[in-house]
Every structure is written in C-alpha cells, then in structure tokens.
Design brief:
Blueprint: E1 2-7, E2 15-16, E3 20-22, E4 25-27, H1 35-43, E5 48-53, E6 58-60, H2 61-70, E7 73-75, E8 77-79, E9 86-91, E10 95-99, H3 101-108, E11 114-118, E12 124-125, E13 130-136, E14 140-142, H4 143-153, E15 157-163, E16 168-175, H5 181-197, E17 201-209, H6 212-225, E18 228-232, H7 243-250, E19 254-258, E20 269-273, E21 276-281, H8 292-301, H9 308-312, E22 340-347, E23 363-364, E24 367-368, H10 369-378, E25 384-389, H11 393-399, E26 406-409, H12 417-425, E27 432-439, H13 447-459, E28 465-470, E29 473-481, H14 485-488, H15 497-503, E30 508-512, H16 524-529
Parallel strand pairs: 7-15, 16-17, 16-18, 18-21, 22-25, 22-27, 25-26, 28-30
Antiparallel strand pairs: 1-5, 2-5, 3-4, 6-14, 8-9, 9-13, 10-12, 10-15, 11-13, 19-20, 20-21, 23-24, 27-29, 28-29
Helix pairs in contact: 2-4, 6-7
Length: 536
C-alpha cells in the first residue's frame, strides 16, 4: 500500500485519507473513489487528494479485520460486523473471560498494522459487554500478514466467556459466645446477593459451634445435596491446622490451598470433597465489597478449576484494600423495569439559521418551544430532566419557570455539541442506567414517544443504544447506556451521540415513532411550517 498525496487523474480506486468536498458532495474518510467521484472532484477544482493506493495483495481494513476475527476459535462470544477496520466481540452471557495471552501477544507482534485488545484474564463480564476488539490501523494490510495472524488463530481457542452456571450452595456459619445473630443474618443476605449476580442459589444453612467435629459433620451433610459448600468461621483462620481446614479433612476432603495473596481475602481456604468445592470464606466475605473470595467463587461458578498454583498467582493485582474496582458489586441489580433513565435536554444553541430570534422561545400553542419539550420530558418515565443552557441563558431559564427541571449551564457552548452533552451528563445521578439526549427544537415529540424509547431500553437490559426512527431512517431522540458515559467525556468539538453509535460497536435498537423523529425547526420556514411563532 502506498499512502500520500496523489494527482486526481490517477486517484480512481484510491481510499481517501481525509473527508473531501466537491461542491455539495462530501466524500467521507476511507471512501474508495470511483471514476465518477474523480470526475466530480476534478470539476470542483481538486487537483490532488491524500489517499491510500492498495497493492494487488492488500486486503482492505474491514476485510482484513473480518478475516482475522473469522479465523478465531472462541466460546460464548459474538463477533460484530467489521466497520472502520474494526471487529468488536461481545459476551453472549455473563461469566468469566479467559484468553490465550501468548496467542494474542504473538498476533500483536506480527506487525503494528494488526492489533487485538482484550479484557484482562479472568475478568468478570456481563451479557453484551465488549470483551475484545480486532483493529486494523491503516486502510489496508498485506494478505501475507493477515495469513500469519490466521495461522496463529488456527492453533486453538483464543478466548472465551465461561458462562456462570446455576449452582446450589450450602452455607455453614460457626458460632462463638458474643457473636450476634444479626451478623449471621446479614452474612446470609450478602451471600444470597453474591450468588444472585451469577445465577447461583443458596439452598441451606447450618449454624454450628466453632469446633472441628460439628463443622465436619455439617460439611459432609450439605455437600450431598449441593454443588458447593461455603463455611464462614466465627474466628479467622490463624493456622493451617485451624478449625475450617481441619474440618474439611475430617469430613474426608482435601485442602487445596489455605491462605491467598489477595488483600482483603488472605484467610481463604479452598478444599474439595466428593468432587464438590468447599470454600472457607475469609471474614471480608461478610461484606459485599470485592475481595479474594469473589475471585475464587466466580471462577468456580463459571466452571473453571482453581488450583493451588492459580491462587498463588493472584498476588499481582491482588491488593484490593485501597483500590476496589467493584465497590458494592454484589448488591442485587435493579430489575429491568426499574432501570433509571435521565433526560438531557439540549437548549444551549444560538439558533444561527434563524438570523436572530431564539427558536427555543418561539410559541407553539401559546407555550415557548423549550417549555413544551421540557414539559413532555417531565411527563415521561425518565427519573430526571436536565436542561443544558448556554445562549440567552436567563431567557431560557425564565421560559421554564415552574417546571421541575435541573439546570446545567454550559459556558463553552460555542465550542460545539460535545460540551453540552458533557455538561448535562455531569448532573445525572450515579444510579442512572442511561441518558436520553433530547433536542430542544423538536415540537412533535410526545411523552409517549419518549416512553417507548425507555421501554425498549429496559427490555434490552440497559446495554443497547436506542434510537428513534422514521420510515427506517435514524432520527432523534437517542438513548445511550451508561457504558458510553466515559466515551462521551472524551468527545470534542461538534461531535454528538451519532459518532458514538457509529464507533463504539454496541447493539442499536431502532424504535419507529413516526415523523416526530425527524421534525426539527432549524430555519424560520420550518418553524413557521410546524406551527411556531417567533418572538423577538
């Protein structure tokens, strides 16, 4: 592949490096020029373009990414279609991610043009979460390099999502004088919540004295009817021959490992009896915060074996005391019907096409347009409506007097749409599962329309982008899941939600709401045609 400026006369078949305009026609980056395109550019006075010229043995970026992804062996994962030289791979079900790190390293060492990024080994994942991405850096790559990557992929499974299984778990809690029943009751609730996240079920509990014989007896009894037994000791293990490891052995089992290099979680005990797993839980497992117990429990529920050597290798990254990555991770997730959605209503623009008047203050049926839109947002199932102001801030706020909205002023509104998105999302509660971006100048959008988008988002589990459409064409509003909030924080200039929908690789649900999805009032003619009356 050759890359650089080339004369327009020889540009047929070349791939544009930058967006290029010919009169009213705009050619996007990565567009392959046809003879007709070249003629239009020449007529527009374009003498050369910066482009990539592919050699005979080159594969285009999408074809190369698709070929590599298609050669991979994986389980529990779905590969999305290639776009912009990228194939994203997503989990089909919640579970634990495993990866052949040596194979990934080998592919990434072939050439900088070919890259694969994945989650960390044994990372817990949710359904629909992206676990890996194949990205081709240039517009094309030599077929020999792609062949080298596919040869590595052919060696065996390269990664997998090991789905959680519906395991049955029996719990033993030992008791010493002074331990409160409320502590034991809370431990049960926390354990039930932990198991619920992975599809497990707590089926039985035994409370015994903190002594070897009764713990061994309870262990042997529970292991018969359960897939796993978890033992919470009233006193932390202080020796490898202490009550819990000794009880496992007395019951006829073996101790795989006592103690682990994860903090919190040091005092975990892992054993086996009759092919079933026995876990002596560390004291920190009484809390829902992440600890070493989670690492072992999740892997076992996902059907992965955990050996003494595996536990010994958990020290790097095992310091969790001051850097919890999943604070309160085991609290029960809200039901889909309870997922909270915030609305960010964009009202910061200058209405430049109107030639002076602010379109958001135009009257529709006697109400300012921005009031009408906010009123309908408040009438929806959304939990909060944030109005982003900028141009004529005080006039817009005055027009919304009496409405229960939250105002977020954007002093940088002239820098583009991205600044308003970031300003609005900053005011949403931390428990918001998603945000609906509502334009202030869409007079026909109703509360029912907004509710249909929210219902579709909840039905999809809160992981997909939901977009209003009209006759199969994308429109507004757009509802974005919380997983995109970090990406929104990195947007610049006049880039909005459409860019994220096109580049982040999430599933998109289009909801047909009719003409309301495409009716906005950017010009005086459009506003008056929609029934609006401009105010000076």
């Amino acid at each position: 592949m050759k890359f650089g400026p080339i004369p327009i006369e020889t540009a047929e078949g070349a791939v544009l490096a930058h967006s290029t305009t010919a009169g009213e026609r705009r050619f996007r980056k990565a567009h392959r020029l046809s003879a007709e395109d070249v003629a239009l550019l020449r007529t527009a006075g374009v003498s050369e373009v910066v482009a990539a010229v592919l050699a005979e043995d080159d594969l285009g970026e999408d074809a190369a990414a698709q070929t590599i992804a298609g050669s991979m062996a994986f389980r529990g994962i779905e590969a999305k279609p290639a776009a912009t030289g990228r194939v994203n791979l997503h989990a089909k079900a919640p579970g634990i991610f495993t990866v052949d790190a040596a194979a990934i390293d080998a592919i990434n060492a072939i050439d900088p043009a070919i890259t694969i990024a994945t989650l960390a080994q044994h990372a817990p994942v949710e359904k629909g979460q992206m676990v890996a991405t194949v990205k081709i850096i240039p517009f094309a790559v030599g077929s020999a390099l792609v062949d080298a990557a596919t040869e590595i992929c052919a060696a065996g499974e390269i990664f997998a999502v090991n789905a959680y299984r519906p395991v049955r778990v029996g719990v033993i809690q030992t008791v010493l004088p002074g331990i409160k029943p409320s502590v034991l009751d809370k431990t049960l609730r926390v354990t039930e919540a932990r198991l619920a996240r992975t599809g497990g079920r707590l089926t039985a509990e035994r409370r015994t004295a903190h002594e070897i014989a009764p713990v061994a007896e309870a262990t042997a009894s529970l292991v018969r009817d359960n897939d796993m037994v978890v033992i919470f000791g009233a006193s932390a293990m202080s020796d490898f021959a202490d009550v819990i490891p000794a009880a496992i052995e007395k019951a006829g089992g073996t101790v795989v490992r006592a103690g682990m290099p994860v903090d919190p979680g040091n005092l975990l005990v892992l054993g086996a009896l009759g092919g079933k797993h026995i876990i002596g839980a560390p004291g920190c497992a009484r809390s829902p915060k992440e600890n070493g117990f989670d690492w072992v429990l999740d892997r076992l529920i996902a059907g992965l074996d955990v050996t003494a050597r595996d536990i010994a290798g958990m020290g790097v990254g095992g310091l969790l005391m001051e850097i919890p990555t999943r604070p309160q991770p085991r609290e029960p997730l809200p039901a889909k019907s309870q997922l909270k959605i915030g609305i960010v209503l964009l009202a910061a623009g200058r209405s430049s096409r109107m030639g002076g008047p602010n379109k958001l203050l135009a009257l529709f049926d006697g109400k300012p347009l921005v009031y009408r839109t906010a009123e309908r947002a408040l009438g929806s199932k959304a939990s909060r409506t944030v109005v982003v102001t900028g141009h004529q801030r005080e006039r817009v706020r005055a027009a919304l007097a009496g409405l229960d909205v939250t105002f977020a002023h954007n002093p940088d509104f002239t820098d583009g749409l991205s600044t308003s998105l970031k300003a609005g999302i900053a005011y949403l509660p931390e428990d918001s599962a998603g945000v609906m971006i509502v334009l202030g100048d869409m007079p026909d959008i109703t509360s029912h329309d907004l509710d249909r988008l929210i219902d579709a988002f909840r039905k999809g589990g809160g992981n997909a982008v939901v977009r209003a459409s009209h006759d199969g064409k994308r429109g507004n509003p757009v509802l974005l899941p919380r997983s995109l909030f970090p990406a929104i924080a990195h947007l610049e200039g006049d880039t909005g939600a459409r860019h994220l929908v096109e580049t982040e690789g999430l599933d998109v649900i289009d909801v047909e709401i009719g003409a309301a999805a495409s009716v906005d009032v950017d010009t005086r003619e459009a506003l008056e045609g929609a029934g609006g009356v401009l105010q000076d």
